[in-house]
Design goal:
homodimer; alpha+beta; Arc Repressor Mutant, subunit A; Dna Ligase, domain 1; 2 domains; 3-stranded mixed β-sheet; 4 helices; 5 strands; globular; DNA-binding
Chain lengths: 141, 141
DNA sequence: TCCTTGAATTGAAATAACTACAATTATAAA
DNA sequence: TTTATAATTGTAGTTATTTCAATTCAAGGA
């Protein structure tokens, strides 16, 4: 996916985030690579482009993005927090063979969960995480 | 929930796990306290009862239980692996106010997800994780 | 242009969850 | 009782993430 920098700047501004080079790089990477990368992966990929980039900045930036609702945290496995710039309602599929994480988009207009489980009185929902596990077509079964 | 020790021993044996005092204590705690505890919580709770218990044993034991499909791992937040001795298909609800994790059971006989998202050709599913986030009745909204 | 101020970035050190490993202890079979 | 195997333990890692103080950057006013 090719991403226009001017467009990225507008999207950051729209969420009240001033667009520093580091922030643009992280957001641009997430937009261009819907692979749900960890902070570590982002760091490794961007380091050649921004040699001064520090891991702390990557963490700071991601935390800022999450707090401003520009990207979502994706929790697939313990011990690795992943990030997703696609804010549409969708589920994830983790292949237990190759460890890749795939997006599963519902049919247009439908939510990922047709019907939410019944909630106790007084409970309110703000988010739904759905992650399937199994084998992708490459890894067979 | 009161749990009979003889019953626990049978359940361990049924999965090919020899019932040491430590294993019985961990499994009994999980059965009696459906609070999806972390290894750390289990350790803190059991230490007074088994003063020699080590954290390594708790981790070993939980990993063994998971590999023998006696308990399930529950992934709610990053950085903390939780465990659940209830093997029925059910969803979880994490209150972002008090951080408690609640069970959400579907109607009898129904799966948690009525309809799975459409999968690409050749993909096979072995497990479904569903976790809602929001506020419980105590924490209001 | 220079100065000031606050925001953003950085690196080093700390923390937390978890794992590896070698030594000890318990269990069970011969 | 001896022996072999399994389970437990403590210590010392490892890895992901956070804290924090110092530095750098960028914008606005004198």
């Amino acid at each position: 996916m090719k991403v226009d920098e001017a467009e990225l700047i507008l999207q950051l501004r729209a969420k009240g985030i001033s667009p520093s080079p580091q922030r643009l790089a992280v957001y641009g990477f997430l937009k261009a690579n819907p692979i749900h990368p960890t902070a570590d992966v982002i760091m490794k990929e961007l380091k050649p482009l921004l040699p001064t980039l520090s891991l702390t900045t990557v963490y700071n930036t991601l935390k800022l993005f999450v707090s401003k609702d520009l990207v979502h945290e994706v929790i697939i496995e313990d011990g690795e927090l992943r990030f997703d710039a696609d804010l549409c309602d969708h589920a994830h599929f983790k292949c237990t063979g190759c460890d890749k994480v795939f997006d599963l988009f519902p049919q247009k207009g439908k939510p990922v969960m047709e019907k939410l489980p019944e909630l106790p009185q007084g409970f309110t929902v703000t988010g739904v995480h759905v992650c399937l596990r199994g084998k992708c077509s490459e890894c067979g079964n």
